Amino acid sequence: MIGLAQVYIVAGLVFAANAALSARDASNPKRWVNAGFWGLLALSMLAGDRLGDLGNGVLVIVLVGVAGLGVLGRGADVDNASERQARAAIHGNRLFLLALIIPATALAGTLVFKAVPELVDPKQVTLVSLALGAVLALGIGLVWLRERPVAALQEGRRLLDALSWAAILPQMLASLGVVFSAAGLGKVVGSLMSGVIPDGSRMGAVLAYGLGMALLTMVMGNAFAAFPVMAAAIGLPLLIQQYHGDPAVVAAVGMLCGFCGTLMTPMAANFNIVPAALLELKDRNAVVKMQVPTALPLLGFNIALLYWAAFR
Amino acid sequence: MNLWVLSGIAVMVAGFALKVNPLLVVLLAAATSGLAAGLDPLALIAAFGKAFNDTRYVSAVWLVLPVIGLLERHGLQERARSLIAGLKGATLPRLLTGYLLLRQITAALGLTSVAGQAQTVRPLLAPMALAAADPADEEDAERVKAMAAATDNVGLFFGEDIFIAIGSILLMKGFLEQQGILLAPFDLSVWAIPTAFAAFAIHALRLWHFGRRRQR
After folding, report:
1. B52-97 pLDDT, tens per residue?
2. Which of A143, A21, A146 lies closest to A87, judged by CA?
3. Rounded to an integer, what distance in angstroms lies between the CA atom of residue A141 and that of residue A139?
4. Which residues from chain A sit within 8 angstroms of residue B118, using beta carbons?
């Protein structure tokens, strides 16, 4: 069955190639630091399950040490704008067809693979389809554009160099969320929030729940981690059991309050910090700042919806 | 109640404010909260290592970068730019509002990875937005690009919850089930619809306002 294990092998090979190309990149003054960083990430992808928990922990510490103390360098770009312009004129709009292979495969995979659970792990259909689309587009692109595979890997290195440490920040934060939960941090925040609600105030309970979801999501970087905590601290005992609110509304709209929090925190790095790195923005928080004016009125809307719709 | 476990949050805030490398800050925050909770240092390292290994799927998405880079090498960004520059009515607010709608609808159908920051925003949407906006200076260009990224996030977040088999819906269903409350996924996902409309209205209004302010 095709699942995460196969996706990790593909990702591991991409990172391993990146490490090898970085090591040979004379234009990068820190090339050995880069090679070590991407090499360790390749090791994690390819052999993480065989390292054991403590081994993986040591791997993370070394990885962070390399990136944090060694400071990743950046190699020269492999081509320039005028070359790209000239190539664009040759290929024309056919390039869009190639670019559409990835979403088209994701679409087809999501629909088709669900029907054959024995072939593809049903829980990982999205990621498997994305990986398949990327491999397919790469194969067709190499033939069509008459490039050698190493050219694509060099371009991948250029993009990964631009991402630098931001490439693994989302994974680090997801792991931090797990450790925070194990330390009981969510429960403490949840009981602090439920402690500030005035007795018998339905409005107060709704506000504490909605704002609490947004705030705890901002702290944990993830609404999924915040939901069980806030639902157990306020949503279930007060809104559902004491005030007889509609459980579907309390859960669904509460989660959406959390999503407003996701828009406002650098902790949700894959949505907020990584794009700033991908688009090579100078301000790391530029995307978060752009989202706050949408997130705040929407949070207000959600809290109002919660108040009216849960207690119809 | 052990308030010391909150110290990890303080470390995060201080670390981000002082612009220490965020990877170091994350490790320090995990160590602070974990030790405050009474975890043994070796157990803490193992817990972080296990969590890191279990969340590798987050970083696995970078396997799309070689093909994106290959397309960029052959001028995908330039083509995207000239496509929009050739369309007369393609203003920045119209382009981003159209993308927002498309992203919300596809996400609501469960097609969350059809678009994304690496797959569509960097190679297609951001260059198109720049072509439509024709920015005055570097700072203006940064704001246009950041708005393109923000629009992708808003569309994704407030579309995906309408789909009944998305992770957050299953999480809520599972949580309520443990408390003896039985609900169908549809009962939950239907309540994402009002917010989806509100998110579209609020963000479209902001895009329109953003376009008008830039023109002055």
Report:
1. 999 898 898 899 999 999 998 998 888 888 888 888 788 999 999 9
2. A146
3. 5
4. 278
A290 touches chain B (CB under 8 A): yes
Q: Is B216 on the interface with A (CB under 8 A)?
A: no
Query: Chain A neighbours among B 159-198 (CB < 8 Å)?
Result: 161, 167-169, 171-172, 175-176, 179, 181, 183, 187-192, 194-195, 198
**Cα distances (Å, whole numbers) of residue A146 to A96, A139, A151, A152, A193:** 17, 11, 10, 11, 60
Given a cut of 90, is residue A245 above it in pLDDT? yes
The ipTM (two decimal places) reads 0.89
The total number of residues shown for chain A amounts to 312
Please list the residues that pair with A120 across neighbouring strands.
Answer: A2
Among A61, A99, A151, the residue with its CB nearest the CB of B123 is A99
Annotated domain spans of chain B: 3-55, 62-215
B213: amino acid identity, one letter: R
pLDDT digits (tens, 9 = 90+) for A164-221: 888 998 889 888 888 888 888 878 887 888 888 888 889 999 999 999 999 999 988 8
Residue A96, chain B, CB below 8 Å: the answer is yes
The pLDDT tens digits for A272-288 are: 999 999 999 999 899 99
User: Nearest-CA residue of chain B relative to A93?
Assistant: B79
